[in-house]
Batch of 3 targets.
Target 1
Amino acid sequence: MAWVYLVLAGILEIIWAYMLKQSDGFSLLVPSAITVVTMIGSFGLLSLSMRTLPLGTAYGIWTGIGAVGTFIVGILFLGELISPARIIAAILIVGGLLLMKFSSDFQM
């Protein structure tokens, strides 16, 4: 269940980051409110996942989901730059996330 919490926390992170951009510096009420609510939800779910997952694994994957997700949202909805270097960077982050996930399953 910890992995489900972690993925949901990452999705909420993407939402709050996007809504933070839309809030125009917290000057717009609805996007600001959505930002705060999804931040609380994201942190809450992250904390639940950390009950059983290692700190480095949970936090690393949470931030990675947020980073890659906001990268994709920025391109799709905000017209942000898409370049070979940014795509390679996103692929490397995803590779790191997979390695982090699979390495956390093994004890040395």
Target 2
Amino acid sequence: MNAQQLSERLMRVAAHVPADSIVADIGSDHAYLPCYLVLTGKARRAVAGEVVKGPYESARKQVRQEQLESQIKVRLASGLDAVEQADGITAVTIAGMGGPLIRSILDAGAERLVGVERLILQPNVHAKAIREWAQENGWAIAEEEILKENDKIYEILVLEPATHPISFSPRELLMGPNLIEEFSSVFQEKWQRECSQWKKIVEAIDNAAETAETTEKKKELLEKIKLVEEVLQGENT
């Protein structure tokens, strides 16, 4: 992978960036995504934010190599602290982290999202945390996508400021309203895998000494298994 040829996962993230955007890529690693967006004319300018020194230096090197220093600013900062008001950011991408970490980044930098028109978020796990954040903070799900690459399944959530209060059902929070509706083969595979794993954990709990913690965990898992199986069996009401 490089700035000219992204992974399929990042190509799909890039596809959701509106034309002529000014993008902040948080947790940019080698800055492949912002470089690609600027090189292809999808973004006018970009900020590549990294909190770790090594990836930050890799991002700076990549931007220099592509001769994009005038269009991409690389900043060593935690989360959305990489964004400055003068940047005029219109779109934010955060890819390759867990959902709870992405949520914590959005929570910590909420004031820096003023003026942002679109969030393109690709959690590796626990996308539910992002849907909960969207519901609580006035962002609507404009699009959702699920894809499989190298035997790993990824979700992409595209959020835009909501024009009315947002409320998701428990199954929508867990599995995604658009993804439930589309009901793709990859979606079905993901949730069959998840259910299988949860059932193994429930079985292990049943074979272990009972505690208040394990009882609560089992209850939580059984509730999720029920939600998922209802959707997989076509009970989408």
Target 3
Amino acid sequence: MCCDGDCRPLGFLLGLPFALLSLIISIVGIAVWIVGLLLSCICPCCLCVTVLVELALELIKAPIHVMSWFTSQIPC
């Protein structure tokens, strides 16, 4: 039997602790992003700062990726 919508509450509930953990990681990512932006304003020629900012952006998006992965793994 297939679901009419894309609602998977069991996947959401199972993924919630991992999403909370990734939310903490995303807060760290925000701090790294702010520091990276400040460093890139001071020295724009430094390539490693740009990579650091890109990594921080992926850390900020972590809760969304975790929840979408968990909800896609659980069938209706």
